[in-house]
Design a protein that fits this description.
two-stranded parallel sheet, alpha/beta, 33% helix, 13% strand, 5-stranded mixed sheet, globular, 7 strands
Length: 359
């Protein structure tokens, strides 16, 4: 491919991905509402199949991207269900599809721009080369579908008929490519054992703790430093006096967790959710947890701000940390410590500002 055309492609792709980011940020609530309606229909279909005994317990519910559909300008994802054997199972079904045109609005624009620009490079750029570049761009735009489901799924499963579904002892909701890269946006593990998991943690195996279900367990006082808990579920856990320093906590769910005196200093907390958590006297020093896209070049979908909604942050230490874009709605912040230089980055109420300690 001609070097000048390749430069044009990279610049245009970057521009269109940033426009998709802006569109997603501006309309995320509307997209979540639309997805909730679709999810209710999905649950109804699964419950119907199970009541008619045409499908048993579900182990995997997957939102599946098919490149061929996208390249045929059919901007939708298939919804598939599987038993415990997942892709190896003969017992799997496609139960519908969901339109995601908004995700690929600027993908379409990029495609059209490349076809138009190609006319300036007669014989130097083929239609096949353009198709190859567009195939490579497919999953980058799909990141926004993953982000949408990841951060709306907890509320949606509480408000839908999801609980009526008969699920296996281990259950996952995945978003990804068919028989390819997938991300678990929700897990249930009814077989988890606290002591077994604690021994597992002590080995500090790389990547082994990410995307897992640890809900409702007690790890108070344990050394969980330098661990990878990316997008893991620690809702309703007890983490009193727990050491989580230097840990990877991207998108970790700490909703309703008791984290009094916990130490999360030096961690990466992008997209973490502390809604309704107790972080009294917790240490969150020198933490990175900004929102949005952090560079001029698009690498991944922009980070959603950390949530401290309704959390108890009394006497928590946030010094030398960056929580730009975080949600502190209704958080108790009496005595919480912040640096003066970071106050303007925080969207705090008048009452909250009067109750914090500025150092």
């Amino acid at each position: 491919m001609h070097d000048k055309f390749l430069e044009f492609y990279n610049n245009e792709q970057n521009r269109c991905l940033f426009k998709t980011e802006e569109l997603f940020v501006a309309n995320r609530k509307s997209y979540e509402d639309d997805f909730k309606k679709e999810f209710v229909k999905i649950c109804e279909e699964i419950v119907k199949m199970q009541s008619e005994e045409t499908f048993g317990e579900i182990a995997y519910l997957e939102f599946t991207l098919l490149h061929l559909k996208i390249m045929n300008r059919d901007y939708s994802v298939e919804v598939r269900v599987y038993d415990n054997d997942w892709y190896l199972s003969k017992n799997q079904k496609c139960i519908g599809s969901i339109k995601i045109d908004y995700v690929y609005k600027y993908f379409e624009e990029l495609w059209n721009e490349l076809l138009l620009e190609r006319k300036r490079y007669v014989g130097a750029v083929t239609a096949l080369e353009i198709s190859e570049k567009m195939v490579n761009a497919v999953p980058k735009f799909y990141d926004y579908m993953i982000s949408l489901i990841r951060f709306s799924i907890l509320d949606i499963i509480e408000e839908s008929n999801f609980k009526e579904i008969k699920k296996s002892s281990k259950f996952e909701i995945n978003v990804g490519q068919y028989m390819g890269d997938t991300e678990a946006v929700y897990k249930e593990n009814m077989l988890k054992d606290r002591d077994e998991i604690s021994e597992w943690f002590k080995k500090k195996l790389e990547f082994e703790s990410a995307f897992e279900d640890f809900t409702g367990l007690d790890f108070s006082g344990e050394d969980l430093s330098d661990m990878d808990f990316r997008y893991s579920d620690l809702r309703n856990t007890k983490l009193i006096d727990t050491d989580l320093t230097d840990s990877m906590l991207f998108g970790t769910r700490f909703n309703n967790a008791d984290m009094e005196n916990a130490n999360l200093s030096y961690g990466l907390l992008y997209e973490a959710d502390f809604t309704n958590a107790n972080l009294k006297n917790a240490k969150l020093r020198r933490v990175l947890a900004m929102s949005g896209i952090l560079d001029e070049r698009w690498e991944v979908a922009g980070y959603i701000g950390v949530s401290f909604r309704n959390a108890n942050l009394e006497n928590a230490d946030f010094t030398h940390s960056n929580f730009y874009g975080a949600d502190f709605t209704n958080a108790i912040m009496k005595g919480a410590k912040f640096n003066q230089s970071h106050i303007e980055e925080l969207n705090l109420s008048k009452e909250q500002l009067e109750s914090i300690v500025i150092v």
